[in-house]
């Protein structure tokens, strides 16, 4: 009887062990990879790894390590054969208000900008783009105590040679720079001259020291007129690397154009221009359209474009800016002339291109054209600095897409302070309103 009980106990223990083993095997199988969906799982894992890597690249240490390199943040495993990146968001419904962006205005945070340029990263990028120093003079022009818009302000040296020229914004502010480029200019003098003109009103001041002067206030007297003309140009990179965001950008820009027309069309004389560029080996280098008041026509031009071509990282930014600045009939008198430069890559890097970019920046400032970059996914540290230099020198501001939307590749976190993330279309409308409202 005792043997029978032992046998029953033994069999019971064996059965329990078998059941436990079976349960463990079942759990292991359920937690393991589903081989029937191995391709999807592999793509997801690669995407997660790339995201973590890109987030790490936003640290100051990694930003400094990337100086001097023209590399895109996406890894090889994220690319198709043609070099274009794959994104799961491509299947999302395209509509306005999906892209997210931030703004950083270096002109409004001038001390912080100076500290940035004094850092190793800032100094390296000044040298990289052959900029020497941002010795700034802020000139505030009023007439009878009211801000004067589109006044022409010139800075001359002690030999009466023109150093810099700019136009005031609707706050009456113009920004002049001495010794901006690394061309042997004497950047610090105590005998600069400033000439201001708005219509028939003129005023000159001398014995100006830079950068010690800081801000110069000039009242012209009388009553200066406020122009109603507004020129808004969009210059958009349409190479293959922009494919991830171009469809969304088109939706955002269409929305912006429509909203600006509705808000200001009755009060302001708004002209629009859409321009597109690729690289010199593509089906076109620059495709530009003249300024027009026909909002629907500009929307059609945007809708007709597709992202392809390019290949290497740099693109024909110089050719696009050359066309934008020199080949369009910008208004002689205007409340605002805004050039939104939408891109994800720098110009080709050589002495000729860098020199031309500098000349185009100076010409844009002299013509009152404010460059407002919109940095997309793929912009690296060197490109960020060049775009911010453009914005500062022309009285614009720096816009950048962010990862918050989940659309496109990874976006470089700018070397800036705290900023507010907003829908891109709302931010663009806000920028236009800022520059056109007195």
UniProtKB/TrEMBL annotation:
CC per GO annotation: cytoplasm
Q: Map out region (Disordered) in residue numbers.
A: 27-93
Mind telling me which SUPFAM superfamilies this protein's record contains?
vWA-like
* Name of the protein described by the UniProt record: von Willebrand factor type A domain-containing protein
Keyword Transmembrane, does the record have it? yes
Domain named VWFA is located at 231-432
Molecular function terms, GO-annotated: protein serine/threonine kinase activity
Has UniProt tagged this entry with the keyword Iron?
Answer: no
Keyword list, A-Z: Membrane, Transmembrane, Transmembrane helix
Q: Where is the composition biased (Basic and acidic residues)?
A: 58-87
Q: Which organism is it from?
A: Paenibacillus algorifonticola
Among SMART domains, the record links this protein to: VWA (SM00327)
Amino acid composition bias (Low complexity), ranges on this chain:
34-56
Where is the chain membrane-spanning?
7-29
């Amino acid at each position: 009887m005792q043997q029978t009980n032992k046998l029953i106990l033994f069999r019971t223990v064996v059965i329990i062990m078998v059941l436990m083993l079976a349960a463990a095997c079942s759990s292991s199988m359920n937690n393991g990879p589903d081989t029937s969906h191995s391709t999807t799982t592999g793509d997801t894992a690669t995407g997660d790894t790339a995201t973590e890597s890109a987030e790490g690249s936003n640290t100051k240490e990694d930003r400094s390590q990337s100086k001097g390199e023209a590399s895109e943040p996406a890894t090889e495993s994220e690319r198709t054969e043609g070099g274009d990146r794959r994104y799961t968001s491509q299947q999302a419904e395209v509509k306005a208000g999906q892209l997210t962006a931030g703004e950083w205005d270096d002109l409004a945070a001038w001390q912080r900008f100076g500290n940035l340029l004094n850092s190793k990263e800032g100094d390296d990028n000044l040298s990289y783009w052959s900029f020497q120093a941002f010795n700034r003079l802020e000139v505030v022009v009023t007439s009878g105590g009211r801000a004067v818009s589109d006044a022409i302000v010139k800075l001359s040296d002690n030999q009466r040679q023109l150093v810099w020229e700019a136009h005031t914004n609707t706050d009456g502010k113009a920004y002049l720079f001495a010794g901006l480029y690394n061309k042997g200019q004497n950047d610090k003098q105590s005998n600069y001259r400033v000439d201001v003109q708005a219509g028939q009103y003129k005023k000159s001041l001398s014995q100006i020291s830079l950068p010690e002067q800081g801000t110069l206030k000039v009242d012209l007297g009388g009553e200066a007129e406020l122009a109603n003309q507004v020129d808004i140009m969009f210059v958009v990179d349409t190479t293959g690397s922009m494919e991830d965001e171009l469809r969304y950008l088109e939706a955002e820009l269409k929305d912006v154009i429509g909203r600006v027309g509705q808000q200001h069309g009755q009060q302001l004389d708004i002209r629009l221009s859409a321009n597109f560029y690729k690289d010199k080996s593509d089906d076109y280098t620059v495709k530009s359209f003249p300024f027009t008041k026909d909002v629907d026509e500009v929307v059609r031009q945007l809708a007709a474009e597709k992202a392809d071509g390019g290949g290497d990282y740099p693109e024909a930014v110089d050719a696009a800016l050359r066309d934008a600045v020199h080949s369009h009939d910008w208004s002689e008198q205007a409340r605002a002339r805004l050039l939104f430069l939408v891109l994800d890559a720098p110009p080709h890097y050589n002495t000729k291109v860098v020199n031309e970019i500098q000349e185009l920046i100076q010409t844009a400032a002299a013509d009152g054209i404010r460059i407002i970059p919109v940095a997309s996914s793929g912009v690296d540290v060197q490109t960020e600095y060049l775009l911010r230099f453009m914005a500062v020198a022309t009285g614009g501001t720096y816009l950048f897409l962010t990862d918050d939307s989940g659309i496109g590749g990874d976006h470089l976190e700018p070397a800036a302070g705290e900023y507010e993330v907003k829908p891109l279309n709302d931010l663009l409308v806000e920028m236009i309103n800022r520059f056109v409202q007195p």
